[in-house]
Amino acid sequence: MGTQELQLAILYDLTYRLGDVGKIRLQKLAYFLQEAFAVPTKFPFKMHHYGPYSETIETNTARLKLAGYVDVAADAQGYGFHITPTDEAQGEWRDLVKPFKDSIEGVINNFGQRAIPELELAATIHYVKRLRPEVSTSELVGTVGQLKPKFDQKYVSQVASQLEEIGILT
Fold it and tell me: Is residue 114 a contact partner of residue 56, using CB atoms and an 8 Å limit?
């Protein structure tokens, strides 16, 4: 199994399971799959305006569209994009994602229906904690508050607590 093949299979599977996913949601779900649930997709993430971002996810989404597996359409009201499945996945892709079924379901159950701003915040909290595992929760909340001043400290702390409860903020 090649890395790109697994990346494509995972992105398609997330889209297929959710039916209609935006670009930001897809980025954050893929981030949590890799960084919190240890699915070896090897997406290179960096901090971006809406939290951790991988250009490779954007590129692979375009590949899926060109191959006819997904459709990517701008939202009619101008709120981002809709990525929807258009074709059945290759049989080998189903086999590729099978070992990660529990992780995929865990990510979808924990993050699949969260509002985009909350996903942005949760992924940013997790990203900062991975970069600085030694920081206390209060230091983490302060650092994330500086990176994301649109979120008040109480909300940052609340989302950090949720990530701790899930067991992915260690």
Answer: no
What is the enclosing helix (H) or strand (E) of 117? helix 116-131
Rounded to whole angstroms, how far apart are CA atoms 77 and 45?
29
Phi first, then psi: give them for residue 84, nearest 5 degrees.
-130, 145
Distance CA 141, CA 147 (A): 10
CA–CA gap between residue 91 and residue 24 (Å, rounded): 27
- Give the pLDDT score at 1: 66
Instruction: Give the pair of three-digit tokens for residue 100.
Output: 């990660």
Rounded CA gap, 73 and 128, in Å?
32
Q: Which of 10, 17, 6, 43 is nearest to 112 (CA)?
A: 17
Residue 77 has φ and ψ, to the nearest 5°, of -90, 5
pLDDT for position 77: 84
42 vs 71: CA distance, rounded Å: 24
- Which range among 5-19, 39-53, 80-94 shows the weakest confidence by mean pLDDT? 80-94
Which of helix, strand or coil describes residue 54?
coil
What's the pTM? 0.94
| CA nearest to 103, candidates 23, 5, 159, 36 | 36
